[in-house]
Amino acid sequence: MKLIEHAKEGLLNLYFSKLRSVLALVGVLVGTASVVAMVLGGQLATNEALQQFKMLGTDLLAVSVNVFSADGTDTTERADTLSLSQALDLATADAAILQVAPYTQLFHPILYNGNPVNGIILGVTDSFADIVKIKMQSGRFVSIFDKYEFYCVIGHDIYAALKKISSKEPLGQQLQIGKNIFVIIGVADAWPENSFVYANIDNSILVPIMASTIVSKYATISNIIMRLSQQAEIPQVEERVSHKITNLLSEKQITFRSAQELIAKMKKQSNILTVFLGLIGGISLVVGGIGVMNVMLVSVFERRREIGIRMAVGAKRRDIGILFLLEAIMLSLVGGTLGVLIGVLIAYVIAVIWHWQFTFFLLPPLVGFFVSVTVGIFFGSYPAYLASRLNPIEALRSE
Asked: How does pLDDT run across 332-347, given as a tens digit for each residue?
């Protein structure tokens, strides 16, 4: 019952000193809102990146093969690189490998109606579209039957660039790559860029992988993407694929990237970022706590006579301390609650502006509210202690 009475008296005291109470409350509010908004915003950004990354699937494995000579120089010009049949045969390395998509990457002059076009050339197989989930806007994707045919599929950005050059629909038109003329047989839909694939499909021209070897002698298979079964043991698959490539190429540098590993790294970086943002926002909350302490110290100074009267009529020092501590806690409670609401609202506005999917994470608001109350207790303890230690006689003499 005493706590309820103290709480009522504390609310009345805060009400009678409105301006100071509001200023202290605003300090806690801003600090809590900063913590919640920064931490929740960071989690939303990470969640959005993970969602885009997971669109390709978590069952992917990328292999990069670089061949080096004994003196350490790059030997990709030599014939001891992977052939198409050898790359496709890697599917037999482990039963968990469902699809294999080797691809080449070239940088060659591109012309459309005599106008230069910026883009990269990817030599791909038909399974490449299935694995990296390329959807067609119109036309078709390259087929295994195209072999050395000069057909190509253009990305979404390339399509937009060609439309600016000519009002004609690019599908069925000719595109010059180096000295060779390719016919556009398909237009790819917009593709969300993903760090797992070493290319931006939107800014790419995709040709049959065998035709890419005619375009340039530097068209070598150094990157392979594999789709694995959900139960695949990735370390085991990596070991078997590496062993098979080693038997084919004696001098090589093999690196693997799995979607699961990259997602785990992103989550780890997200945790570090969340702690960092929380600490930055916590500085604002500490400043707000100092504001609460200043308000309570002024309140103790102004109410010395009241404290003396309370002690004279039988109030214990513990009661005086609890009264002032409850005032500080109530300031922090109100400021923390409003700060949590405003912080969530700020994070929501950020998600809307950047077109992110808003997901409510419970931890940031809870942490923000808990820390704000803790700050109120911490910074309110010293003024409450000073109030409880006042000499009753000196307090009664004060004006």
From this structure: 888 889 999 999 999 9
What lies within 8 Å, CB to CB, of 241 at 6+ separation is 61, 63, 90, 93, 94, 97, 226, 254, 256
Domain positions in the chain: 2-53+264-397, 68-251
Comparing CA positions, the residue from 215, 195, 179 lying closest to residue 104 is 215
By C-alpha distance, which of 112, 195, 194 is closest to 154? 112
* Ramachandran area for residue 197 (φ above 0: left; ψ -120 to 50: alpha; else beta): beta
Query: Tokens at residue 159, please?
Result: 């399509």
| All residues at 6 or more sequence positions from 172 whose CB lies less than 8 Å from its CB, including other chains | 183, 184, 185
Res. 73: pLDDT tops 50: no
Instruction: Give per-residue pLDDT as tens, 137-189.
Output: 999 999 989 999 999 999 999 999 999 998 889 999 999 999 999 999 999 99
Give me the residues paired with residue 186 across strands. Answer: 139, 153
- Give residues with Cβ within 8 angstroms of 203, minimum separation 6: 118, 119, 120, 155, 157, 158
pLDDT given for residue 206 in this prediction: 97
**Each residue's pLDDT tens digit, 338-371:** 999 999 999 999 899 988 888 888 888 988 888 8
Category of 281 on φ-ψ map: left (φ > 0), alpha (ψ -120 to 50) or beta: alpha
259 pLDDT exceeds 80? Answer: no
pLDDT score of 72 more than 60:
no
Q: How far is the C-alpha of 109 from the C-alpha of 317, rounded, in Å?
A: 86
Distance CA 347, CA 357 (A): 11
* Measured distance CA(299)–CA(15) in Å, rounded: 12
The residue written with tokens 């190429």 in the block is 249
In this structure, the strands spanning 120-124 and 204-208 are parallel
Q: Is the confidence at residue 213, as pLDDT, over 90?
A: yes
Cα–Cα distance for residue pair 282/276, rounded to 1 Å = 10
